[in-house]
Amino acid sequence: MNIKRVFLIVLDSYGIGEAPDADKYGDVGSNTLGSITKSPLYNTPNMKKMGLFNIDGVNCGEKEDATIGSYGRLQEASRGKDTTIGHWEISGIISDKPLPTYPNGFPKEVIDEFVKQTGKGVICNKPYSGTEVLADYAKEHIETGKLIVYTSADSVFQIAAHEEIVPLEDLYQYCRIAREILTGDHSVGRVIARPFIGSEPEYKRTPHRHDFSLLPPKTTMLDCLSENGYDTIGIGKIYDIFAGKNIAKTTSIISNVDGMEKTLETMDEDFKGLCFVNLVDFDMLYGHRNDIDGYANAATVFDKQLSEFMDKMKEDDLLIITADHGCDPGFPGSDHSREYTPMLAYGAMIKENNSIGTRPTFADIAATILDAFNVNGDISGESFLPNIIK
Fold first, then answer.
1. Each residue of 159-176: pLDDT tens digit?
2. Among 212, 245, 267, where does a domain finish?
3. How many domains does the chain have?
4. Fewest Cβ atoms nearer than 10 Å: which of 84, 252, 339, 359?
């Protein structure tokens, strides 16, 4: 029997322990899984059965005597530890150069050009939490009409504006202008529109966020699949991360729970190819905010939905669960962490109680997925399909 559908679920920031080069990133001692398993709210029996705690180097949790799938860990080969670089590597691109970040804000030449082309003033221009930036700058923005420009530990240029002060289409146009300015040495991964509503002192971000991403610099597994007639479905921010390139269908989500519900709905569709899912709450709501219990509870809720997903799988479906980097909520600071990521594979055709050890790059996932569909492609990575298929 051939594999007809692959469901690739990325648990955004679900690292499983410091990578060998963590010292180069200031991340020695980071362990996202280690931190969240200490919470009384953590309970993931289905991932446990799949082999999460049997993975090499995982010293937390209780190992499974006989796992129901194949498991292993992946080391990031790219330079960088952000969402874009991580997903690009999962899709078959190893990045030799990290995307630029701005711990001191954007340089004067970037801001001056942005002000010149938009005709709008700028306030903030610092790394900031998305909620705190509203608390500190929303009032001034409303009074002056100046745009709140800020960044984070990620390679992002974010523009926050009140929907009643700056209409959405105007905000999106300002983001397009920023995207055109931010090239060359300033090629940030994403320019993000961050609209909000409310009045002093209560402000709330709206669901009208929009990401303007860099096009992937090389061929991805999505390109290869699409060019060979396979379906490519993105759920969550996958479309944004890949700037929409060769994603035939996209579904936006408002939470992890909604993302899994949308994925469960997609299982009812008759397609042949890849369903690529990103669940961002782990990172955005809990990792960056050092909320160990929140992260742990989100993992528990995901695992319950995973049970429903597994029960619904067809004989020719393959499930792969992984992550794009770490974001240890128990580690000092609120940045991403340079960690190994898990690889959990499950399906009727997948070996049980089977370890693939440690793989040298996330790109091995892309190579494995192309191998599952007998597609050749000019991507990095080496398939581990022979290691997991019965």
1. 999 999 999 999 999 999
2. 212
3. 2
4. 252
